[in-house]
Amino acid sequence: MGRRNRERSRLTPPSSEYRDSEGNTLTLRGSLRPGARRQYAKVLHGTPLSREDAWQRAIEFLFERLVVRWDVAGLPIERQAELLGRYRMASVQERRWVRDVLREHMAEHFPELEQP
Question: pTM for the complete prediction?
Fold first, then answer.
């Protein structure tokens, strides 16, 4: 049997689900590549003129890299562009919940990284 015909197993990173009080679910990746970790550090500390801007960009960066799926009101969102678009139009309360989930997830899976 040739190399092309063999089934290849891919490693899938572990994921964690977080549910809010309304039943919405956010699914996050349990791994972050070393390059993404370096980029995150640059984003978090990259703008000395606007600390608030750097903080917002860091949260959005983590959202892009870690969120795999977001079920909102029973509708699953899985495509990256749609996830980011939904996050950008989220209410203040939803953004706060997402930020808290990201912080909790980072504390559990990436304790060496500074949280936004």
Answer: 0.84
